[in-house]
Sequence to fold (663 residues):
Amino acid sequence: MSRLLGSLLSALVLLTAACAPQSGAPPSSGGAAPAPAKPEAAAKPAAGSSLKIAMILPGPIQDADYNAVGAQALDEIKRQTGAETAFSESVAVADAERVAREYLNSGYNVIAFHGGQFLTIVQKLAPAFPNATFIMESSGQIPDLDPNVWNIGRKFYQGFYVLGVLAAATTQSKKIGYVAGVKLPDFVASLNAIKQAAHEQGGDLQVIDAFIGDQNDPVKARQTTASQIGDGVDFVVVSVNLGVNGVAEAAKAAPRPVYFTTYYTEKPELAPDRLTVSLLSDFATPYLQVVKAIQGGQRGGYVEMRPGNGFQLSEIRNVPPAAAQKAKEAFDAVAAGRKDIPEITDHVID
Amino acid sequence: MSADLFIDPQLLRLTVTIAAPFLLAALGELIMERAGVLNVGIEGMMAVGAAVGFLVTWASGGSYLLGLGAAMLIGALLCLLLGYYGISLRGQQITVGLALLVFGQGLASLLYRAAVGVQFAAPRVEVLPSLPLPGLAALPVLGEVLFTQNALVYLAFLLVPVVHLVLFATPLGLRWRACGDNPRAADALGVNVVALRYAATVVGGLLIGLAGAYLPLVLTGGYSDGMIGGRGWIALMLVILGRWLPWLVVGGALLFAYVEALQFRVALVTKAVPPQLLLTLPYLLAIIVLIWIYRGARAPAALALPYDREARG
Fold:
């Protein structure tokens, strides 16, 4: 009896561990396949209405954030183009190639990697599967990509410039916080854009930045934000994903009014009287442009996601009307290409 | 860098707030280890406690008591699983603990997903409010640091003398320690080793579940996968650092919480130290302290050893 119970419990342990939200992937082939010496042609050419699109997402789709908007884009593609779609979530970079190969071997002819961390995998798979099309995301143009690769360049920093304008126009303490996770080029460029906005506002505004090493750790985000608030910050520009929960709690617990921004999705429920604006990311816009181009027979190319094309401002709340107006004008200027914002990714400017 | 940075009242207040979950989990582990049961699955159990505590609070419309109670219950149940393998089946406690670590992390994700599904607005609850203690909260500096905390912080620190008294001033504590040091001798004196080890396991599980629920219900107001962030492992280490003594464990918890809080303050005032290096500070400290402290530490002699009363001594 004890052995039976033990076996049942062991099975339960393994089953539940396996049920952690990792994928809705096709049947596993077990382990990463070796790099092919010759091009493989499992997938049929991607064109016309026979598209079978698989998206690989780095995190869980219930994050109400980056992965959720990715899944939303995939739903929109299915609805608007009639393509067959599937996705795998919480796929680590080390597993992404295996998962992509499983899709390709299952007949999927378009593989979309939702995240900037999959470049080397795309560079490896694209020549190996010349009949398939790959969609990847990055911070901009990448030279020498294969002809069957679509690159979506996400210009987050342009949107963060607008958030910086709002922060600079709102802060009373003249101290703006910036809470980011991993020190990636995207986030460094965003920080520099905020600094540019603060500098343009004048009045010796200070931007206090913190990279906490994790996009999804709300506890660290809260501790960091509390430290910034302790240092005088009264407006925080947020560049973490699930970490934003911690920022919101730190803002709510602050001894004086502290405001913050978010991105990807609108999150007013976090702190209705503290959240000012969200930089909304509609990935469906660039993805649909890409998928429609693929349906038109265009195998590769570049699409830019930027204010006006994929990035929008949510309703602006809890700030003086003049500050909101300034942010809207800045957004319009950036969207129209009238504002020059240098993309500095390799160092943080003073 | 000013010296005021290191004694800033807000930094010290944050230290106390952060120390509470370390303390709760470490006290739970300490009780278990004193009785001879080693639980290396704290991280996974805290994850389940966090998920269940948050979900029940959310589903009940903000009832902290229900949420905290459910988290404690699930922590105790998971520890009972460990107890069943480690005490009744006399399996390897480390192996089972590691299995429960993975199980817990998977279960936490699964429960959250099953209950919440995919939403563009993640569910949230109001965090436990601060509970300034009348009179004491007005004390200069100390009042702000110690007496404007939430109820769970007070509970965590009150548990230190309680656990100490139970372990060292009551017959139950004596029996628990006997089970951890020499279960055969305890058995010979009529102590029910199996029952007492189970009891310690359940009490430990209650505290570990509570520590997990602390994070979403006090610090973040929401649950996310991976939010325990290694705190379960730190709690395990704190028991060794504290040499299996509650009053030393509290010192360790405050030290680690202080370093964790300080790293963010240091990152604000200097860019000379890379942020990545600052983030490793608590773990570097853990390694250094463990190397230093373990030389003189004496673990319960029968820790992690299954007890078989039929075996020859």
About this structure: The first strand of chain A starts at residue 52 and ends at 56. The two ends of chain A are 69 Å apart (CA to CA). The longest helix of chain A spans residues 2-18.
